[in-house]
Fold:
Amino acid sequence: MSIPVGHYQYDRIDRDFLQARIAEFEGQVQRRLDGTLSEDEFKPLRLMNGLYLQLHAYMLRVAIPYGILDSRQLRKLGEIARRYDRDYGHFTTRQNIQFNWIRLEDTPAILRELAEVDMHAIQTSGNCIRNVTADEYAGAAADELVDPRVHAEILRQWSTLHPEFTFLPRKFKIAISGSPNDRVAARFHDIGILARPGEDGAPVFRIFVGGGLGRTPVIGQELFDSVREEHLLATLEAILRVYNAHGRRDNIYKARIKILVQAIGVEAYREAVEAELAQMDLERYRLTPEAVAAIQSRFAVPQLEAPADADAVLAQQRRDDPLFDRWVRSNTHVHRDPGHIIATISLKPAGGIPGDATSAQIARLADLADAYSFGEIRITHLQNVVLGHVRKDRLRDLWMGLAEVGLAEANIGLIGDIVACPGLDYCALANARSIPIAQKLGARFADTALQAEIGALRINISGCINACGHHHAGHIGLLGVDKRGEEFFQLTVGGRAENGAAIGTILGAALPEDETVDAIARLVDCYLGRRESGETFLDTLTRLGHEPFREAAYETV
Amino acid sequence: MKLFELGERTAQVHDVLVTVAELAERDDARAVLLESADDPALLKPYLNRLELVVLRFPIFRDGRGFTQARELREYLRFSGEIRAEGHILPDQAAFLRRCGVDSVVLPKDGNGDPALWEKQLRQFPVAYQRSVLPERSVGPGLRVEEAS
Ligand code: HEM
Ligand code: SF4
Structure:
């Protein structure tokens, strides 16, 4: 097989490693069945391999490192959905995919099938360093300074079965971006890394620590402004060592690094990290240019050739077809090559379940990736799919192919592009069902012309305070709460995960599901009525403050 | 008490095992027990006479012992024996070894089967990051295998 353009190409040694991991897991399942491992002992071990027990069945979360996979891998995911699940998969906010209806007995077979295409479920859960996420437009976006994928792959390798950091106080999430426009929510991660070019050509890294959502939302703070590439791994080791030694282990709600950073302050944390670095043998941890180059060489470079008139062809097609034009406006992003464009495919059809894709859709996406984007597919942290390198003159063909399988929704970044956690339909911890209200909101704003009129607006929904749906980071956030046994939703506004990260603030009393949908419609009307030209929802909210929105939302209640 | 050796160093039995607090009083002590909350740097004044540091795992999920072992090896250059005891699993054998632990007190239940520990030590042909052991690169990139 030729080298994939989007991700690291495995070799025999990497594949042997995966097989060894599967054999290890099979042994663990066996020991659980014969009783040598207690359930308490088995649970962290299975979680470390992505296997959860949900409300009705086991769920397997498969890693998609830095969100990028090739068509062969995507096809395999579709086959697994068909054979072992209920014919669909669910793409997650951490760029992974989950299968919600898995039988424990089937997991070794599924893991073997995944390994056939160099995939696995390693560290997609558990109190370890989780699958690393990266900018969904990596290596393609015009606004990118450094392609973060090579370093994301380095972090993936380095964190895989790390001997010291596999039994941390709590889960640990790292995101990396190389663009000045934050598309990874860097400041809502345990560690967020922003790469930029350094003076000697090698990248330097700005590192944030202690961000996170959950019950205690915290915006990450800058630990270092410019870490040199050669010290990247040493610095991460030092940060994790301080956390492993001092993070709280007495209370899981206080165990994330954000609580430790809050407790001692970022200055003290920095001093502690520097004290570690001063004692470490930096040579041993040095990330050499040779190692970086070796890993880089496992990524193929797409040959971006487009006819000279590609741009003109696209422009003409947009003029001829307003529906296509609307889709291009919301669902594409500027590519670094003028003949190419980045297309985002919405997994948020009006009234559908955000992030779900059927095996037929998955198979079609793989075919379209082969035909239009070098066989490469990316999963976004907003649960959509990206084809990163589409020739401009072929974009319309792609769009028509997508429409055939119901994947041409023109709503990326708009009000229909909702992020929702699994909620009470799957999750035992939920207070409320997140999916039905997402579907109702999607249906309410189904008109894509209206969505375009409303403009940039993110809705995030979590079924409980654990915040898997990132409601704190939504421009409008919904949190499921339990009121005397009934499902209610608390509204927050003003959150954002992009540049200028902010945590949303509560607007007022929680409302029942249908009233929540109405209240959001009134919020939107209030914005449409009072915005000044060019303003987004967040702009108007910032200018006017919460009061007019609060009044609008609670008008008739 | 059954000991299992993770590496080449032969496990030694010591009759006197003291806590960190007791070390100062007991000139004869050659072995010390570190609780998972203890800072290994406290052992600095005694490193010359210490032959064994025992790391106690209150529960296998408490990973502080891994960091303690690495600090002992990397920062304090401790060259004596490091042992893990308490609630530990054979699934952790290679992690312990790679952090510098030489021996374990085998658990008394099914997790104490030496064959499981033996197997786990040989489970993975390579690792993706440096440890405290002597290692050589299995390029390209970060992969290493043990040098011995
Ligand atoms: C069965 C119950 C649960 C389900 C179905 C669930 C579902 C999810 C999903 C689908 C994601 C994105 C996953 C990824 O790709 O890594 C996620 C992330 C997350 N989960 Fe859950 N989750 C559950 C329980 C919990 C619990 C118990 C907590 C906290 C105590 C929690 C906190 C979070 C947080 C905070 C995030 C993402 C935000 C972040 O940390 O940056 N979840 N969850
Ligand atoms: S936010 Fe709550 S309800 Fe939603 S998936 Fe997470 S734990 Fe479950």
Remarks:
- Chain A touches chain B at residues 13, 16-17, 20-21, 23-24, 27-28, 31, 35-37, 41, 44-45, 127, 154, 157-168, 233, 241, 244-245, 249, 279-281, 284-285, 291, 294-295, 297-298 (CB under 8 Å).
